[in-house]
Amino acid sequence: MSHDSGTHRSQPLDVEELERLPMEERAKVASAVDGVNIVHRRERFPVPGTKAERRAERAVAACFLLTFLGAVAFTVAYVVLPWRYESGNQSYAWFTPVLGLTMGLALLGIGFGVVLWAKWLMPEEETVQDRHGGRSPELDRRTAAAVAVDGLAMTGLARRSLLQKTLGLSALALGALAVIPFGGLIKKPRGLVQTAWRDGVRLMTSDRRLIRPGDIQAGGIATVFPAVQDGLTTQVVADSVVLLIRLRPGQTVRARPGQEDFGWQDYLAYSKICTHAGCPASLYEQQTGRLLCPCHQSQFDLLQDATPVFGPAARPLPKLAITVDEEGYFVARGDFPEPIGPSYWERPS
Amino acid sequence: MTDRPSTVKGRRLRRRLSGALALALALGAVGVGYSTVAAAAAPKARAASDAPAADPVEIRKGRQHYEQGCMTCHGQNLQGVQDRGPSLLGVGEAAVYFQVITGRMPVARQEAQAERKQPKYDEAQTLQLAAYVQSVGGGPELPTGDLRGDDSNLAEGGELFRLNCASCHNFAGRGGALSAGKYAPSLDPSTDKVMWAAMLSGPQNMPVFSDNQITEEQKQAITNYIQTLNEERDPGGSSIGRLGPVPEGLVIWVVGIGAIMLMILWIGAKS
Fold it and tell me: What is this model's ipTM?
């Protein structure tokens, strides 16, 4: 509003007087009005046209020239250099680095040029501007509150109860309007309890081949999906992906109670999704029978039926019951007995 | 009229004979055609039946190498020695080739994992050893023929690599840690044959990926993808180990911001 500190406000000048002042003086007046005080000002080169000044000017000009060259080189490189990937020919690999280098040079040139211009050629100057005091003057503080109270009184809200009520009602409805759409985002996570596995659904690989017991050798693993129409879509893969593992000869599994017959001979099938944070746990050590999750180093011991033995995962990996159908292909015998993946609020069990 | 039945009989016999002959010819043609097409399409891992039996001289030389360098730990008849070395019966020539040509065997000492080092046996000696072990116990065989296929399989190879291999070997084949001191090695120094041998035999803690599970064409694609990745230059400038965002972030924080800080200091000191 006003410059209350006002210590540097010079005597008010009338318009005519200002018009008569030279530009430089007028600028001084302007900064004085804003409380800016020039403490020290010195020309870098009091005598213009000396050797030193010309040298400084040439250095700044060289910087700008560098920008020009860099920018031109960028354009040329962008048009001329090969960028398309070709097998066996590596020259495309220079495209991005050359673009980066030339653009970097151009920006560096203009940056350095401007800084050096200010440091070498412009006058050396020190100015001080007074800071506004800690709090507003007493007069402003008292009157501000009065203005607010007066404004409220002018609306007459305290007297007009009808307006008060209808305004409150409309505010409520408006608030509800903002909140209610979020309700549509809240859904019961039914999809987490059910996956695409059903009794009789066959197991297939990522290239849609069905799997027979002879396909995997001892100590082998395969990532498998339900062999249904949309078995490789993201929605199905996201919760139904399974790791089919064939144990080595001599490895025996201490199964969970009630799930002793879930495997088929030396084959076991587990959900690939870690029970801690849902990463794909598929780093399998075939000799130790450990399955590692790469995200938080959880380890599941398959010889203890995928019980977590290290890391943050708390629950064993859900196990898929499998068998072999009359045509000799692996099939599931139903869905997982428990929800797959990490815990969540409504998780049953 | 009287000889008519005999003619009918004779004609029937001839028809039957010619039918059988045609069938045999057709079957033969299909068989030959299939085998040539299959041979052209994929490198046939030598099946025990149609492969020429390994040279007995080579096997004998392999046996000599075995008795000098391996028997102490793996036993006189490849049956293994308690607390020293596992049985080699049924591991196959692929496993022997992988372990010996990469220098992992013979091991220097027992530890979490045998590591790659300067090999003790050259290619010929390794193949002799492999032939000997194969002749005794059988098992996964070394591939022959084209191990990469043509470049049209690169995209498929990348997908298979990310699904089956990248979890342990890292998305750029740089390897990574496993449990208790074990690790998946970098794939940089691996030859095509070593990669195939590893997939077929599942060395140490690596799972086995048999030809029924990952077909030979898919193995070609994976191998071609890894080797192409190894040979590619990095279009975005320095790869910084191809280890992903952590080292890249470290470099930009330490080197990049460090350089800017130095520049600021320099500008400040000059004024």
Answer: 0.71
